[in-house]
Amino acid sequence: MADARSVSSKTKELSIICDDRPGMLSHLAQLLGDAEVNIVAINCAPLGVQGIVRLVVDDVPGARNAFDGKHLSYMEHDVLLVEMPNLPGTLAEFAAKLAAKNINITTAYGAAAKDTKNAIVVFRVSDLDKALSIV
Hints:
This protein is of the alpha+beta class. The chain has two domains: 12-76, VC0802-like (2-Layer Sandwich), CATH 3.30.2130; 78-132, VC0802-like. 19% of the residues are buried. It has helices at residues 24-34, 60-69, 90-100, 128-132, and strands at residues 7-19, 39-47, 50-57, 75-85, 105-111, 118-125. Helix 1 crosses helix 2 (60-69). The chain has a six-stranded antiparallel beta sheet.
C-alpha cells in the first residue's frame, strides 16, 4: 500500500442541473472562461432526461456572478478537495482512513495525468469537519 501524504482543503462545489444536450458543457465552460474563472475539477453525469454538472473552480464569487448574470440556477455544496500522490493504493488508503472515522463518501471524482506526481480528488462526505483532520 502507498505510504502517501495527502493535502486536504474545504472548498465549494457548484452543481448545475441542465439540459442533457450537445453544447451545454461548452456553454457553461464559456461562461466561466469569459469571467476568467478556471475550472479545477469537473464531473458530468446524466440525471434522468437532464444532466448534472459538478464544478470546483478557482474563483467561486466569479462563477456565481457569471451564472447569476445569465439567470442560471446552481446549488453549492461544501466538499473536500484532496491532492494526493499519484501512486497505486493511495486512494484506497485515504478512503480507508475516512471509513475508519465512520465518514461516508457520497460523491467522488478526480483525475491525474499519466506520469504526474499528484492527483486531485473531490469528495462530498458525511462529515466534512472530521474529514479535514485526516492527513
